[in-house]
Amino acid sequence: MTNSLSSELPPAGPEHSRGNVRRGADKRERLVAAARRVIYEQGVETTTLAHIAAAADVPLGNVYYYFKTKDALVSAVIESYRQSYGVLSAELAQQESPVGRLKALVQFLTSRRDQLATYGCPIGSLSSELDKREDALRSDAATILAGLIDWAEVQFRAMGREDARELAVALIAAYEGIALLAATLQDPTLISTEGGRLLRWIDSLNQLPSGNPPRAETTG
Amino acid sequence: MTNSLSSELPPAGPEHSRGNVRRGADKRERLVAAARRVIYEQGVETTTLAHIAAAADVPLGNVYYYFKTKDALVSAVIESYRQSYGVLSAELAQQESPVGRLKALVQFLTSRRDQLATYGCPIGSLSSELDKREDALRSDAATILAGLIDWAEVQFRAMGREDARELAVALIAAYEGIALLAATLQDPTLISTEGGRLLRWIDSLNQLPSGNPPRAETTG
Amino acid sequence: MTNSLSSELPPAGPEHSRGNVRRGADKRERLVAAARRVIYEQGVETTTLAHIAAAADVPLGNVYYYFKTKDALVSAVIESYRQSYGVLSAELAQQESPVGRLKALVQFLTSRRDQLATYGCPIGSLSSELDKREDALRSDAATILAGLIDWAEVQFRAMGREDARELAVALIAAYEGIALLAATLQDPTLISTEGGRLLRWIDSLNQLPSGNPPRAETTG
Amino acid sequence: MTNSLSSELPPAGPEHSRGNVRRGADKRERLVAAARRVIYEQGVETTTLAHIAAAADVPLGNVYYYFKTKDALVSAVIESYRQSYGVLSAELAQQESPVGRLKALVQFLTSRRDQLATYGCPIGSLSSELDKREDALRSDAATILAGLIDWAEVQFRAMGREDARELAVALIAAYEGIALLAATLQDPTLISTEGGRLLRWIDSLNQLPSGNPPRAETTG
DNA sequence: TATGAATGAGGGTTCATTCAT
DNA sequence: TATGAATGAACCCTCATTCAT
Fold it and tell me: D64: Cβ under 7 Å from strand E?
């Protein structure tokens, strides 16, 4: 199930597919993909436009034709993440029950454990860095995590939980928190273990009354 | 109890207490305090030595008398955090039971909610930024979060939990995760709510026999 | 014969030919020429990139577009000397006999006496300074003197001297030694006199059978 | 014979003889000795007062009590070399004939071959570096090489050579030149070979009439 | 005399951004 | 559109020199 998902979130992008001429139209995409990857691995502040340009195989001077400033490119990266999470939620929507969808999210987390243990969560580390600013960029990045929380809240609500918001926040906090710990301690097993714990936790929430009766679910 | 604690972790240090000349002995401390504050508010990469020097009211050139490089100063900041957490654990040790100590940690978290919702967790955001590097600094910073987890594990162990490690990781992950969310969404209430949830969760763990998988509490 | 030579080795390059804009292509050359001149006159360590940039009429920041580091620029200067000595040896090759070539070298030395008596031999003083380092630059610069010796050895060999290597070393040592003395004592006549002595010495070697220890000439 | 000599010229000085309190009087000497050594190994420009102070085990601030400026310390180093050459000439004076004295000088050169092949001639490299300046320091350093030449001239004159000056310049040029080559190519054998050649050259000068009959000599 | 602690003027280097073509 | 080449502000760091004690 998470097959397709597992390749969504991680920063993708052409490594160096030289040889055939690419239309100018996709240069922008290549830049965003390269920026996403490089920024994920190095952080916004450390990453250089020259570095991104090189990774995208685009002349430095040309970058400014597509992005007025470095911040504009970072903003495009954020937008790119937004799209990725759109794809993700579409994938998750294939699950028939809210519990299944939530558990699929956790399994998606677990599937990325090695990557997360190296550079952390792309969204989390980006948000963490941008939290130090007072830009539009900060609030821009914030919408992604907010969207994730909202999505989880919808699921918990569908389970009949009146504390859906609280649970959603708790779930995403655990998600981001374990990604941080795994990256900091460079230990992917932390994610597996915590993933298992979260799966059980979600199950436990489903079995207990909370107000409205939860819908029956098909997936375990 | 957390009265004193609440002033430990947050970056301390005189903002600009000009007027009376301070002897050189404490200059180093002033620099570390200023660095801690400024780095907390702006991030490592964005923070300039000139900025730190100004915040500490020390001539830029003089900084290098105390710290050979910027990294050395950052390292001193990390060490400063290590000491702060030493103080914190001493405070927490005043609680008679492990449950009390764990809950005191959560209360300490809650007491800092406004600060956390502004710049995030000092340790978490610092670690997140340093996770992008491969320095000694990265592993240096990692020891602090590792220490926190170890501390929590000891408490859970003292509660008779055989899954103490897993619980400790989960607790600190929740701690760091909620700090990140609060900062990103700029919403301190997230911390209060999650703090409450964690307190109940800790209580629930205390009532369950060890060996069984810990069950998260269901509702508030 | 040495007319053209005399303008090869000495640092060349426009001093400040302002007025007509030069295209970027030759900027690199201008920088190398300026660096060569300034370094020759001031030494590597004393010379500032800002100084070189000013001498080349290039904005300081722009220097780094052409040379990644100061050392890279110094390396380019060394390469520039290598080329100059290539030109020199081509000129010397016009002499029909090895004796003629060796004597032409000495005459080249003599023709530069005023310059040498002011700042010393460009290669010698550069090598002397770099000898204090353990860089790649040190060995880089060394290849030039090594090349000179090799060239002289070839000539002596062509004269039938079995002690060609020893003679070559002696000749270049005398060459560099007299340049140092002339510069230190600021006396160009030292070079003229020693030049004459070396010419006679070369002639005397030509008359003696190889295998016998070379005998220096006795008087002028 | 050159036993004592061989330890005169090379930069000497206490390495780190801590443990017993030294009188303040010799601090100056320690500084000069340390400066001599460090400058010999690193060059004037590269050498830091802090480095010298550390090598001499003298607090940095204290250096300025003995030497008003860095240049003053360099000047003292030059003076120190002057004294060393005084000692050297005294040693050489023990030879009964001028030829013996000249050959003893060459043997002194040869005895230092390993050191010379590493850092070059202390006087030569110092002069070479100072030749780039227009200081008093430049002419100050020049007096040492001038003194050496003068000394050699006296010897050649005593041999009855009317071209004594020219020969003296040639000898010292060969001396400095071979030291430069050996250091640049990092090959001590160059010095041995050239030393042998110079010895034979001196002998050959002694056997040939030049005007005045040379004095008989005792040593070979 | 002695010394730890300033001080401040650079020096090498980076980099977002702009310019000219 | 595209791009090589500028540009200049800023950053980290060094170091001779001075100061206060």
Answer: yes
Q: Closest to D170 (Cβ–Cβ): which among C125, C131, C194? A: C194
Q: Which residues of D touch C185 (CB under 8 A)?
A: 142, 145-146
Query: What pLDDT sits at residue D58?
Result: 97
Which nucleotide is closest, CA of C72 to its C1'?
A: E12
Average pLDDT over residues B193-202: 98
pLDDT-wise least confident of B130-134, C2-6, C125-129, C144-148: C2-6
d(CA A182, CA A200): 20
Q: Report d(CA C172, CA D142) in Å as an integer.
A: 22
Q: Is B71's CB less than 7 Å from nucleic acid strand F?
A: yes
Nearest to A70 by CA among A95, A53, A92: A53
Q: Are C168 and C156 in contact (CB under 8 A)?
A: yes
The answer to whether C183 and C117 have CB atoms below 8 angstroms apart is yes
Helix axis angle, A164-185 to A189-207, nearest 10°: 170
User: pLDDT per residue over B33-89, tens digit each?
Assistant: 999 999 999 999 999 999 999 999 999 999 999 999 999 999 999 999 999 999 999
The closest alpha carbon to A13, from A140, A122, A148, belongs to A122
DSSP E strands in chain C: the ranges are none
Residues 199-218 of D with CB under 8 A from C: 200-201, 204-205, 208, 210
Q: Kindly report the average pLDDT of chain B as a whole number.
A: 88
Is residue C131 less than 8 Å (CB to CB) from chain D? yes
Q: How many Å separate Cα A115 from the centre of its chain? A: 12
C-proximal residues of D, 132-161, CB under 8 Å: 132, 141-142, 145-146, 149, 161
